[in-house]
Every structure is written in C-alpha cells, then in structure tokens.
Amino acid sequence: MKNRNSRQGKSRLPVPDPSRFHTRYFAFRGYTLAVLFLTVVYARLHSNALLHYGFLFLIALGMCLRIWAGSHLGPHGNSSSAESPFLCRTGPYRFSRHPLYLSNILISAGLIFFANAFSTAANIILLLLIIAHHVLLANWEESHLRKQWRDEHATYLQRVPQWLGLRHFPANEPYLTSFRKTFAWQGRNLLYACAAVAVLWIAAVWK
C-alpha cells in the first residue's frame, strides 16, 4: 500500500487455493506454541532452579514490538487466513517483513530463559524449534502474498529483509490506529504473555 487510502482497497488478485495442510497449520499456529509452553511449565514444576528475572526484558520488548506492529497492521494480525486486505509497509514493516512473528520469538525466548527449567542446550533446542515454526509460517505467508500482490510484493521483498536488517522500505505516510483499537486487536496476545509469566512464576513457587 502506497498511502492510507489504498489500505481500504481490495487485493489485486484472487487468493489462490492453498493446500489443506498449510491452511490448517496456519489457522492453528497458536496451538503449536501452546504445546511447547506447556512443556516448559511441566519442566518448571519439576525444577529447583531459580527463575531468571532478567529475561523479562525480552518479553517486554516483544510486547512493545507487537503493539507497534499491530497499530499498523490492523485487525488482520490475528486472522486465521494468510490472505491480506492490504500490503503493510509502514511502521516496523519498513524494517522487517514479519515483526509480529519476530515479537513472538522474542517473547518465547524470554519465557524459556525466564523459566530456567531446562539445561542451556535444551533451551536453545526449544528456541530453535520455535524459530523453525515461525520460519515455516513466514515462508508460507510470503508465497501466498506473492501470488496475491505480485509486483508490489516483489518490490517489497527486495527492499525489506525477512526478519531484520539495514535494508528498509522508504518512509511514506504513516498509518497508525488509536491505542484503544490496537489493544482491542492485540490485547489478547499481550494478556497471554502476561499470563504465561504468571503461570511460570506459580509453577516455580508451587513446591
């Protein structure tokens, strides 16, 4: 999208028919993280190690990134479909093609190391699984958007790195929603992150 008005338009091309596996995996992507989190909680209940409170900073950083990205992406951020009503290229989307996924990785990393329930090697393996999960989602989403937006998406791919880098999309008219609307769209995810911290803390002291 080149300006604010174009965000209200429809996609340029009909959305392609995705495979059943990818469609379901994308729609239920949150459950994969939920299963991994329950694994951490179970390990935390059986661990005597101290919580690492310093890693709460990563969780806070991930939450801030989600709010910033959500204020530009709108309600589509929690959609069960990879279809996008517009191609977001403002805010953090100028520097990363997937800031919401990046925020998930930051929050997940913070939770894993805050819990301190596994060995360092096991923590890294768990984090790599989470990264692989988001790389799969990102690649599938991009293949979907590439068919939907064609030339505009190709230009975006050339100018902005998939995760984070020095390349960026030129500044254009910002599109920000109110904090109230952003929280209405992303508040559930933020509450999940806070609840996850609380659950891990309870698991640590429940002896």
What does it look like?
With 207 residues, the protein is mostly helical. Helices cover 61% and strands 0% of the residues. The chain has seven helices and no strands. Helix 3 (56-73) runs antiparallel to helix 4 (99-115). It is elongated and about 55 Å long. It starts with 19 loop residues before the first helix and ends with a helix.
Distance between the termini: 53 Å
Poorly predicted runs are 1-17
SSE class = mainly alpha
Question: In sequence order, what are the helices and strands, one letter per element?
Answer: HHHHHHH
Report the count of strand segments: 0
What is the helical fraction, as a range of percent? 55-70%
Strand content: under 5%
Largest sheet: none
Alpha plus pi helix count: 7
Please give the radius of gyration in angstroms: 18 Å
Overall mean pLDDT: 83
Give a quick summary of the entry.
Helices cover 61% and strands 0% of the residues. It has 207 residues and is mainly α.
Summarize the SSE layout with pairings.
Layout: H1 20-27, H2 29-45, H3 56-73, H4 99-115, H5 120-149, H6 151-159, H7 179-205
Helix pairs in contact: 2-4, 2-5, 2-7, 3-4, 3-7, 4-5, 4-7, 5-6
Keyphrases for this structure?
single chain, 207 residues, mainly alpha, 7 helices, 0% strand, disordered N terminus
